[in-house]
Design a protein that fits this description.
The structure is a homodimer. With about 180 residues, the first copy, chain A, is an alpha+beta fold. Chain A has five helices and eight strands; from the N terminus they run βαβαβββαβββαα. The first copy, chain A, is about 25% helix and about 45% strand.
Chain lengths: ~180, ~180
């Protein structure tokens, strides 16, 4: 549970190569998680237009409801996030459906995380999309300085500077409907 | 957490008198609770028109999100209910507000419950409204027979047969805006 600004840069990357660079930097392994996320759209506004997101992350029988606000700057994926844990994710899904929200897609990924202070580097293997790296940090204040340092970290990991602003959800939907981009 | 049909009859009542009748019937006391409920309206349809309800019931730091569907028959308050527990009710409120839902009103009540199988009889003292009695039972199948028996119970408690279909929320809102009924 948190209210903060998430600074986040995402690039396509070869994981084997990034793992070697992380080792050279002395990055601390934080473990692996499997995420199963169900995304929703709203009945009264199109989240693709408003640049918001609403999802349930499955955690056994329970889950986490996350709201993501519109991105706050043009270069990164920085945005506001609100999260709350629920006891029964399927019951929450039923309520959202009754309220008129619609299921959009599942996003499933393997995420391996490393700490390189003040950042967390995530090696994501996304079902249907392939390998990505995300550099993330959280801030409750101004985030511009953090953004500059995140880009320096990308460089020192040998990663491209052209970051991807689109979410995995958006990338998956584009892939399914290449005509409609 | 549950999916079922809630059969529910509500009447205005003098609690002291109903308590005596319950004692004669050998009703089993189930205890007292204080409910603090925050009700919401939706941005895309007016729950007063669609006869739905969405509320957070506060339970310490946590809470219960409840969706109530439209009433299923003309005489009672029978309707579908979906509930899910959340870890942090204020965080859930923040997410609902971000999604465009609006806070409508708080409903606060003292509820004293008794079991008279298969029913639960609730003596409700509602802030701003006064004393009521609700007769409730849950069913996952046909509810007409249950409804008939609930009305018989009302009679044997010396209570009026003219039931109130409106929710405490509706009664409170009418009270605040008597011109707009």
């Amino acid at each position: 549970m948190r209210v903060m600004i998430e600074v986040e840069l995402k690039v396509r990357a070869d994981h084997a190569q990034v793992r070697r660079a992380l080792q050279r930097l002395g990055a601390q392994p934080l473990g692996v998680e499997w995420d199963e996320d169900l995304y929703f759209n709203a009945p009264h506004r199109d989240f693709r237009q408003s640049d918001e997101a609403l999802r349930i992350r499955v955690r056994g029988r329970g889950g986490i409801l996350t709201y993501k606000g519109p991105k706050l700057d043009p270069g990164s994926k920085t945005r506001e996030e609100l999260e709350v844990e629920v006891r029964d994710w399927q019951r929450l899904r039923d309520i959202l459906l009754k309220l008129g929200f619609g299921e959009v897609a599942w996003v499933r990924k393997r995420r391996e995380r490393f700490r390189v202070d003040p950042f967390v580097v995530a090696l994501d293997l996304v079902e249907g999309l392939g390998e990505f790296v995300e550099v993330e940090a959280e801030s409750d204040g101004p985030f511009e300085d953090l953004l500059t340092r995140a880009k320096e970290l990308l460089r020192s990991l040998g990663l491209p500077q052209e970051t991807i602003r689109r979410s995995y959800l958006e990338l998956l939907l584009e892939r399914e409907q290449p005509e409609n981009i």
